[in-house]
Amino acid sequence: MRYEVSGKQIDIGEALQTHVKTELGSVMEKYGQRPTDATVIFSKSGHEFVCEVTVHLSSGLNAAAKGHANEIYAAFEETAEKMDKQLRRYKRRLKDHHKARPEPVELFGASSYILAAEQEDVESEAETLQPIIVAEMETKIPSLSVGEAVMQMELAGAPVLVFRNEGKEGVNVVYRREDGNIGWIDPRN
């Protein structure tokens, strides 16, 4: 497994990198997953350290967790516990989906845009009726079943997931509703 351990405006020492690789490796081995790579990012938010971990599994799904603590090692430990809990909850489903899927999840390219937040100068925006694009990036849209999409959204901790529905060959969306349930948007042609 490839590890990428980095810090946002923080120096990450060799001891922390070794600790992260050892602990994260043991969590992944515990559940028999076959991860391909892991990205661990440490940052500081006020007086707290923040640790974000994203692990890409060989099935094409991603697992993500985030933790906060006053100490950098404690932030990683909290994140590792969350990752452990997620993988424990989804172990059976991950194995079932992986057995039914001989090939990794297919990814399709798409453009992703970041739009500027509302500005005080409403008159100039009203004239153009076009939002200001702050950034344009390339993103990947996975080809999943609805069940896999819900599981991927839960594992990644995301509020919404856009995916290509394998059963109907269309683009669909799953999202977390305010009442705690999952919503599914399936546009019909």
UniProtKB/TrEMBL annotation:
It comes from the Bacteria. One of its GO terms (cellular component) is cytosolic small ribosomal subunit. Keywords: Coiled coil, Cytoplasm, Ribonucleoprotein, Ribosomal protein, Translation regulation. Belongs to the HPF/YfiA ribosome-associated protein family. Long HPF subfamily. It is found in: Cytoplasm. Residues 130-183 form the Sigma 54 modulation/S30EA ribosomal protein C-terminal domain. The lineage of its organism: Bacteria, Pseudomonadati, Pseudomonadota, Alphaproteobacteria, Rhodobacterales. The keyword Ribonucleoprotein applies. InterPro entries: HPF/YfiA_ribosome-assoc, HPF_long/plastid, RHF-like, RHF/RaiA, Ribosom_S30AE_C, Ribosom_S30AE_C_sf. Residues 73-100 form a coiled coil. GO terms for molecular function: ribosomal small subunit binding. GO terms for biological process: negative regulation of translational elongation. This is Ribosome hibernation promoting factor. Gene3D superfamilies: Ribosome hibernation promotion factor-like, Sigma 54 modulation/S30EA ribosomal protein, C-terminal domain. The gene is hpf.
